[in-house]
Design goal:
This protein has 401 residues and is an alpha/beta fold. It is 43% helix and 11% strand. Strands 5-4-3-6-7-8-9 form a seven-stranded parallel β-sheet, with helices on both faces. Strands 1-2 form a two-stranded antiparallel ribbon. The chain binds NADP nicotinamide-adenine-dinucleotide phosphate. The site of NADP nicotinamide-adenine-dinucleotide phosphate (NAP) has 31 residues, from helix 1, strand 4, helix 5 and strand 7.
């Protein structure tokens, strides 16, 4: 925060380089055979950081999850019949083969009783705790995108629970402990607005505010606001988790893959975060952050000049619905050469424009279209088909009434 003229506190950002970790050196905040708790540690980021910690300092790890938690320990059987669980068990086995020690525990970070039992277990087994990564979170790519009107209580509870109550539980059970770091895994969405991901974004904003409020306490609260990750190293690797994040404006895979954080990059950044002498909040943006703030926060939208949209060229529209969709695209995207297979995202469409498009087409066709439906049908032909289906369904319902 910075003090603006008139005595108001405003958000301010400073571009900086995180301190490099010298070859063969341990980052300042890590110790050999340190004991680290990673809430949500069996997810994509949790597992990446677990791998880094084991390779860097032969860490002893406590990894928690909500549902899919394989048994660990000597002689633990690899689960049969559940590929997700088996994959996690295999990854834990690899961490142990690298010299790490892993305790995996099913524990809702927001549940006081389970958290109390977890900390008892950590003390009993390791007799110490050196650092915490709070990575518990619920995003769910497909189901996450909702307009404000579509964002219901259940949505909010599921997504806020690990981030809000989970943070409060950590604060309660960490009180009085001497720790080297508590690193909250937040998202750029809490700075760029997270349009369409309101509950998720609110949870991240809560964690940001909590850490900021408590910075300077005995517990070294740190925050990293990640850009979107992709959980594979190269484009021909098989992904093992979600690839789309609200930190991105567009969920188009080709765009995302190019600018997403790869596991090796995330691990390198994490090492540098652990090398920070003073705990503070770090935002990691893979694209020009000032331009993103301009676009998403200050509202400087790139767009076509004002005035009536020219008739879209490039195709003779046999279908009047497709012609109307094309006109809306020309208005919103400034795209003139449109074809039935033109792709909304390839032409610069993003979630903000998707919401505007859904609103406009809903009004023009007198139906209800959600932005996520349009994301799932990104070409003109597909959108027109979806609109025709929705309007026919409306008419059927009216007929039944
Ligand atoms: N991936 C990204 O692009 C990105 C970008 C910015 C920020 N982040 C943040 O970074 C964190 C980790 O992301 P990720 O990509 O690794 O997500 P992920 O793969 O979905 O992993 C999240 C983990 O959290 C666990 N979890 C959910 N609710 C929990 C609860 N109440 N208590 C304990 N564990 C809980 C899940 O357990 P189960 O699997 O057992 O259900 C899962 O293992 C999240 O907080 C996310 O918001 C991610």
């Amino acid at each position: 925060m910075a003090l603006a003229p008139g005595g108001r506190w405003v958000r301010a950002y400073e571009r900086d380089t995180l301190p490099e970790v010298g070859a063969g050196q341990l980052p300042l905040r890590l110790r050999e055979r340190g004991v680290y708790l990673i809430t949500g540690g069996l997810g994509g980021i949790g597992m990446t950081l677990a791998d880094y910690l084991v390779r860097t300092c032969r860490a002893r790890l406590v990894l928690t999850g909500l549902d899919a938690v394989p048994p660990t320990g000597l002689g633990a059987a690899v689960p049969d019949g559940d590929p997700g669980l088996a994959e996690r068990a295999e990854r834990i086995r690899k961490l142990e083969a690298l010299g790490g020690e892993v305790l995996a525990v099913r524990c809702d970070a927001a549940d006081r009783e389970r958290m109390a039992a977890l900390f008892e277990e950590i003390d009993r087994r390791f007799g110490r705790l050196d650092g915490v990564v709070h990575a518990a979170g619920v995003f769910e790519t497909r189901r996450a995108f909702r307009s404000l009107a579509e964002t219901g209580r259940e949505d909010c509870e599921r997504r806020l629970r690990p981030k809000v109550r989970g943070t409060l539980m950590l604060a309660e059970f960490l009180r009085g402990r001497r720790l080297d770091f508590v690193l909250m895994q937040s998202s750029l969405s809490s700075h760029l607005g997270g349009l369409g991901f309101y509950a998720y974004t609110a949870g991240n904003a809560y964690m940001d505010a909590f850490a900021e409020r408590h910075r300077g306490d005995d517990i070294p609260w740190m925050t990293v606001n990640w850009d979107g990750w992709i959980f594979r190293e190269r484009d021909d690797d098989t992904p093992h988790a979600s690839v789309v994040s609200p930190s991105f404006a567009s969920p188009d895979f080709g765009v995302v893959a190019e600018i997403a954080i790869r596991p090796s990059e995330g691990a390198e950044i994490y090492g540098r975060l652990m090398n920070l002498a003073t705990p503070h909040q770090v935002l990691v943006s893979t694209a020009d952050f000032d331009a993103r703030i301009d676009q998403w926060v200050r509202g400087a939208q790139p767009g076509p000049a004002a005035g009536p949209a020219p008739e879209p060229a490039g195709a003779a529209w046999a279908d009047p619905v497709a012609a109307q969709v094309a006109r809306a695209w020309t208005d919103l995207l400034g795209a003139e050469e449109l074809h039935p297979d033109s792709n909304f995202f390839a032409l610069g469409g993003d979630s903000l424009l998707g919401v505007s498009l859904a609103h406009r087409l809903s009004q023009e066709f007198d139906t209800v279209l959600s932005a996520i439906t349009l994301f799932e049908n990104p070409t003109i032909t597909q959108m027109a088909k979806e609109i025709t289906r929705a309007t026919a369904q409306d008419q059927d319902h009216q007929g039944e009434a």
